[in-house]
Amino acid sequence: MLLLLPVASKVVLMRLWLLPLLLVAAAAVAPLSLAAHSSENGSSSAHWTHRGDGGQVTWPTTIPQCGGSSQSPVNIDSRLANVDNTLQPIVLHGFESLNAAYRMRNNGHTVKVYLPESMSVTTGLPSEHTASQLHLHWGARDEEPGGSEHTVDEQRYDAEMHVVLYNSESYASVAEALGKPQGLAVLGVLLQVGSQEHPAFQKIVDGLKNIKYSNQATDVGPFEVRSLLPPDLGRYFRYDGSLTTPPCTEGVSWIVFNQTVRVGVQQLEALRTGIMSTQQNDSQQELLDANYRLVQALNRRSVRASFRTSIAVRGKPGTDEAAPCQQPLERGGERGERRWGFDGARGVCVPFLREGQAGNANSFPDVVECSRSCLPNGATLFPERDLACKLPADSGPCEESTYRIHFNASNGLCESFPYSGCGGNGNSFPSTQACQRLCGARAITRQTSNNAASEPACECAGNTTAIILGLLLAVTVLTFFIYFYRQQKRKQKAATENAAMYTPATTKETI
C-alpha cells in the first residue's frame, strides 16, 4: 500500500509512524532509568521488597543489574575456599571510640546506623577504606532460625550485620565509589543467638521504638562499634560480589568473618517484631522482617580464605568443644532416649536412640545444640532455603506423629504433610505463613523434563509486551485513518474549487 502513494505522502506517513515508535521507546527506557538511579545506601528508586509483590524473584526483571554474574550473597563452601597467605588481618581505626551518639534510620528495608568518617579500615584491603554505615538483615518470627544473607557450608545464621566502606584513597564518597573497580567494601558479620544480651547491640535495640515506621530516625549510643565485630579479625573469607539490595551494583569487595558474634534472644526478637516497613500514615501496615536475600550463584568466582580451613575438625576453634564432635557415634545412655550426635563422615548432626550402653561425649539433647557445637562457626542445621521450595516433602527418620507445612511445586500451594519429629529437609515450615513467605512467589511454576519445579514464570513481562504491541497497533491504525481521512477531505475540497472555477456562465444573450 505504501508503494502506491506519492513521494510526499510517503514522507508524511513515515513521520507519523515515528511518533508512536518514539512513544513506545520512551516507555521502555523510563523504567530502566529509574532502576539505574540509586542513592548511596544502595537503594533504588524502583519499588522493591524482599517478599511478595516486587520481591527478590522479580529483581533481575525490573532491575537488570540484579541478574548479573557476580551477585551477593553467596554460599561459602569452606572446603573449597582457596587459602591465600597474602590476605592480612583487618586493622580498624576509630572503631573503638565511644561516640556520644549515632544517627539511626528505618529506611523501610533495614535499620541503618550512620558512622563517622573517623572510622576506617587501614589494613586488609587493597587501600584504605572509610566507614559509611552499618545495617542489619534478619529473619521472621514465624520461621525457623535463619536470617543471615551469607551461608557457610549451606548453614544459615540468625542474622547478619554489614559495615559498608568506600575506597577513600580514590573516591570522595560512597556515591562516587559506587560501581567503580574496588570502590566499595563490606564487612559481613554473622550474628548468632547466645545466652546473654550484647551490650552494644542493646543500644540499637533500645532505639527501635523511636523508628517504628519507615523514614523515621533517632540517635542511639554511646557504644563501641568495635564490640559488634568478632574478636579475631584475621580469620575471614574474601570474594568479589555486589550490593545485596537493589540496584545490586557489582564491584564490591566482600569480607565475611569466620567467627560469629552472639546477641540475645530478646534482642533478635525485637528486630523481628518491633519495626514496620511502611510509613506511619499508611492504611495497610507491614512488618519489616525476613529482609535477607537468598544466596546467588558463585559462577566463575573464587572464594579465598585468610586461614587454613579443615573438614576434619568441626568444633569451634579455640575451645574444648571440638573433642566430642570427633568421637564416634555411640548409642550409650538411658535406653530409648532420643539424642543427637555428630556424624563426622557425613558432616551433619543425626538423631539416634540410646540403647543403654556406656556412650561418649558425642551426644546432644537436640539438633540445635549439636549443630552449634560441631558445625563450622556454630551454625545451626538448616538446609539452604533458596533450594527448599524445590525439594519434595520429607517426613524424616524418627517415630513421632505430627504435621508440618511444605511447598508443593506441582500446584504452587503450601500444604500439610506428616512429619516424624526430626530430620527431613528445608522444605518444612512451622506454619502456612512461613511457607508462603519464602515460596509464595513461586506460585507460578513450570515443570521441567525431570519433573522438578523450575524458577517462577513471571507473567508481568509478557503482559507488558502485549500491552505495548496493542498500543502500537492501535496508534498505527489511527494514524492511517487520520491520514486517509485528510487526503479524502483535500480531494473533496479540490473538486469543489475546480467545479466553481470552470462552471460556464448563463448562455442567454442580453437583448
From TrEMBL:
What residue spans carry the region label Disordered?
41-71, 315-337
Cellular component terms, GO, for this chain's entry? plasma membrane
Please give the InterPro entries that the UniProt record associates with this protein.
CA_dom (IPR001148), CA_dom_sf (IPR036398), Carbonic_anhydrase_a-class (IPR023561), Carbonic_anhydrase_a-class_CS (IPR018338), Kunitz_BPTI (IPR002223), Kunitz_BPTI_sf (IPR036880), Prtase_inh_Kunz-CS (IPR020901)
Q: Which reaction does it catalyse?
A: hydrogencarbonate + H(+) = CO2 + H2O
Task: Locate the coiled-coil region(s) and give their ranges.
Answer: none
Q: Which domain of life is it from?
A: Eukaryota
Q: Which UniProt keywords apply?
A: Disulfide bond, Glycoprotein, Lyase, Membrane, Metal-binding, Signal, Transmembrane, Transmembrane helix, Zinc
Q: Polar residues: which segments have biased composition? A: 58-71
**One MF term in the entry's GO annotations:** zinc ion binding
Q: Which stretch is the leader sequence?
A: 1-35
SUPFAM superfamilies xrefs: BPTI-like, Carbonic anhydrase
Q: Where are the transmembrane segments?
A: 466-485
Q: What is this protein called?
A: Carbonic anhydrase
Can you tell me which family this protein belongs to?
Belongs to the alpha-carbonic anhydrase family.
| Top-tier EC class | lyase
| Enzyme Commission (EC) number | 4.2.1.1
